[in-house]
From TrEMBL:
<protein>
    <submittedName>
        <fullName>SDR family NAD(P)-dependent oxidoreductase</fullName>
    </submittedName>
</protein>
<dbReference type="InterPro" id="IPR002347">
    <property type="entry name" value="SDR_fam"/>
</dbReference>
<feature type="domain" description="Ketoreductase">
    <location>
        <begin position="7"/>
        <end position="185"/>
    </location>
</feature>
<dbReference type="InterPro" id="IPR036291">
    <property type="entry name" value="NAD(P)-bd_dom_sf"/>
</dbReference>
<dbReference type="GO" id="GO:0016491">
    <property type="term" value="F:oxidoreductase activity"/>
</dbReference>
<keyword id="KW-0560">Oxidoreductase</keyword>
<dbReference type="InterPro" id="IPR020904">
    <property type="entry name" value="Sc_DH/Rdtase_CS"/>
</dbReference>
<comment type="similarity">
    <text>Belongs to the short-chain dehydrogenases/reductases (SDR) family.</text>
</comment>
<dbReference type="InterPro" id="IPR057326">
    <property type="entry name" value="KR_dom"/>
</dbReference>
<dbReference type="Pfam" id="PF13561">
    <property type="entry name" value="adh_short_C2"/>
</dbReference>
Length: 244
C-alpha cells in the first residue's frame, strides 16, 4: 500500500542496516527518498541496489555544513521535507573503566550532536504536518555491559524528542522515537561477538533478534498519516527485551 505516496523523505545513515531497510520500505510505500552516508562507495552501492526513486548524498551528520548541503540538495530537487528520519548513529563497546576519549567523542558527536543538527538544520525545510522520527535504542533503558555510554547517548535522543514534540503546535510537525532492540545489522554483527549474540537472542522473549525490515515497518507507520495523532512517543521494536 502506497501510504507515503507523494511524500519526500530524508533518512540519515541510510546506506546500511536499519536505515537502508527503512529506505526500501519508504520506496515501496511510494515516497521519494534521500539517504545519506559518510562513505561514498557504500552510499553508491545502496542507491544502486534500491533503484529508482532514491538519491544518495554524502553527509557526516556531525558536521552542520554538510547537513546544510544535504538540505539544499533536497530543496532543489524535491522541495520541502515530509518525513525526516534521524537514524545515523555509532555504537562503540566501551566497558566500564576502559572507555577512551575517542570512543566517547565519536558517539556524542554522531548520536547526540548529529541528531540535534539533523533536526535543527531541517526546520526551514519541513512541510506542515511533517513527521520527524529519531532512532533510539533499548540500550537507553537497559544497557548491556560495555554499552552504557552508547545507551546514555540514546537516552539523550529520547529526551530531545520529548522536548521537541512540545513544539508541534507552533511548528506543525510531530516528533517520535523508534527504539530497536538487537537487530541483525552489519554494525551489530561487527560490534558484538557471536557468543554474546547467542545470549542476546536467548534473553529476548521472542527468542530471536530483529530483521531490519521489522524496524522499518514501525518507522513507516510513524511516517504515515495513520500516525497523525502520535507525537512525543517512543515505540519499542525489541521483541519484549526491555519490556518484561
Amino acid at each position: 500500500m502506497a501510504v507515503l505516496a507523494g511524500k519526500v523523505a530524508v533518512i540519515t545513515g541510510g546506506s546500511t542496516g536499519i536505515g537502508f531497510a527503512t529506505a526500501r520500505a519508504f520506496l515501496d510505500a511510494g515516497a521519494q527518498v534521500f539517504i545519506t552516508g559518510r562513505r561514498k562507495e557504500a552510499l553508491d552501492t545502496a542507491v544502486a541496489e534500491l533503484g529508482s526513486g532514491v538519491t544518495g548524498v554524502v553527509c557526516d551528520v556531525s558536521a552542520p555544513t554538510e547537513l546544510d548541503a544535504l538540505y539544499r540538495a533536497v530543496s532543489e530537487q524535491a522541495g520541502g521535507i515530509d518525513v525526516l528520519v534521524a537514524n545515523a548513529g555509532i555504537g562503540v563497546s566501551a566497558p566500564l573503566g576502559e572507555a577512551t576519549e575517542e570512543a566517547i567523542d565519536s558517539m556524542l558527536a554522531t548520536n547526540v550532536k548529529g541528531t540535534i543538527f539533523t533536526f535543527q538544520r531541517a526546520l526551514p525545510h519541513l512541510n506542515p504536518g511533517a513527521s520527524v522520527i529519531l532512532t533510539g535504542s533499548t540500550a537507553a533503558t537497559r544497557p548491556d555491559p560495555g554499552l552504557e555510554i552508547y545507551g546514555s547517548t540514546k537516552a539523550a535522543v529520547r529526551s530531545l524528542a520529548r522536548g521537541w514534540a512540545r513544539g508541534a503546535r507552533e511548528r506543525g510537525f510531530r516528533v517520535n522515537v523508534v527504539s530497536p532492540g538487537g537487530t541483525r545489522t552489519p554494525g551489530l554483527l561487527e560490534l558484538v561477538p557471536a557468543d554474546v549474540l547467542e545470549q542476546a537472542e536467548a534473553d529476548v522473549p521472542l527468542g530471536r533478534l530483529a530483521d531490519p525490515a521489522e524496524i522499518a515497518a514501525v518507522t513507516t507507520f510513524l511516517a504515515s498519516d495513520a500516525a497523525s495523532y502520535v507525537n512525543g512517543a517512543e515505540f519499542f521494536a525489541d521483541g519484549g527485551y526491555a519490556q518484561v
